[in-house]
Amino acid sequence: MNPIIQEIKQELKKLAEKIILHKNNYKESQRKNKPSWSDLQNHRYTQIEFRHRHIARCLLRGRTYEQIEQKTRNDNKPHKDVIAFYLEEYKKRFEKHLEFSKAVGE
Is residue 26 exposed (0-12), middle (13-18) or buried (19+ Cβ within 10 Å)? Predict the structure, then answer.
């Protein structure tokens, strides 16, 4: 597997861990009757970032959007410009990797 795809996958795994951490922190603060709104907010932002990065990674690997998310409500569609931003970031990484590979002679 391409090392860049593996890097991206590891980043997604780290984001998933952050989601779980923020969720658990928020639940724990609720049990103490002092809800941590920052944990709730961070949880939501991390979820949104994970979703968009995941869609960009899948599109990069050749999947169609319909294959990635079969059912979404009209008011819950992902932001195309954010996905395009992550796609561009990933493409730049691929280009750097290709340039490095050519320079090394792999």
Answer: buried
